[in-house]
Amino acid sequence: MLINKNYKNKLNITTSIFLYLTLIAGFLLNEDSLGGAISDYNFHLPIIFAFKKNILETLTIYGSNEMIVRNSPLFYIIYGLIIRFFENLNLLRLINIHVTLLIIFFFYKSLKIKFYYVRKEILYLISLTLFLSPTIRSLSIWPYPLIYAILFFTISIYFFLLFEKQKKNHYKYFFLNTIFLGISSYFTPNFCVFSIFFFLKFLEK
C-alpha cells in the first residue's frame, strides 16, 4: 500500500514538473495557443509605459483615443510601477508565468473542499489540466489583466467554499470572498456579475 502511494506521489510530481516545463518551453518559443495573446500584449504595452511615465496624467486620458480598452487601469498601473524597477520585459513575463501556479494551487484546494470524497491524487491531476488550457497558457506567457482576474476569482471561490463548509465563525470567509472577488472585478469588470450569486448564497446561509 505504501509503495503504491509513493508511486502515485512520484507520478503527480513528475507530471507537475513536465507540464510546468511545457509552460517554460512555451515562453521560450513565444507560444500563443489562444491566437491573439501576442497582439493584445503588444497593444497594451504602450499603455503600460504611459503609466510608468506618469500615472496621474495617463489616468486623465485613459479610455479615450488610443487608450480605449475594456479593462480597468489597475493592471496597467501595477505593471507600470513594476517596470520602473525591472526594465527587462522578458523577466516580467517570466514572473507573470508563475501566476498560473497560484491559480492551479487554489483550484486544487477548492476541489479538495468540494469533492472531499474523491482521492487527493485524482483531484491533483484534475487541477493540473489547467496547464493545458490555451487561455491560461497564453495569458501566462503574454501578460493580460484577465489572468489576474482569474487568479483572484479562484481565490474568492476557495473562501466561498470554506464559508459553506464552516458551521460557526464563518464570517471571515464571507469578507475574504468579497475582498478577492472585488479585486478580481477591478482587474476585469466582467467578474462582478458573480457578486449576485455569492450574495444570494450568503443570504441563504
Written account of the structure:
This protein has 205 residues and is mainly alpha-helical. The protein has one domain. Helix content is 74%, strand content 0%. It is built from 11 helices and no strands. It has helices at 2-28, 37-53, 55-61, 74-82, 89-97, 99-114, 120-128, 134-141, 145-165, 171-187, 194-204. Helix 5 (89-97) packs antiparallel against helix 8 and helix 9 (145-165) runs antiparallel to helix 10. The longest helix has 27 residues, at 2-28. It starts with a helix and ends with a helix. The mean pLDDT is 89.
Give a quick set of tags describing it:
single chain, 205 residues, mainly alpha, 11 helices, 74% helix
Rounded to the nearest angstrom, the distance between the terminal CA atoms is 41 Å
The biggest sheet amounts to: none
User: Which sequence of SSEs, written as H and E, runs from N to C?
Assistant: HHHHHHHHHHH
User: What overall geometry do the principal axes of the alpha carbons give?
Assistant: flat
Please give the radius of gyration in angstroms: 19 Å
Structural class: mainly alpha
The number of helical runs is 11
Number of domain modules: 1
Summarize model confidence as the mean pLDDT: 89
Give the amount of beta strand, in percent: under 5%
Low-confidence residue ranges: none
Number of strands: 0
Helix-residue proportion: over 70%
Provide a quick synopsis of the model.
The protein is mainly alpha-helical and 205 residues long. It is built from eleven helices and no strands.
Tell me the layout of helices and strands.
Layout: H1 2-28, H2 37-53, H3 55-61, H4 74-82, H5 89-97, H6 99-114, H7 120-128, H8 134-141, H9 145-165, H10 171-187, H11 194-204
Helix pairs in contact: 1-7, 2-3, 2-4, 5-8, 6-7, 6-9, 9-10
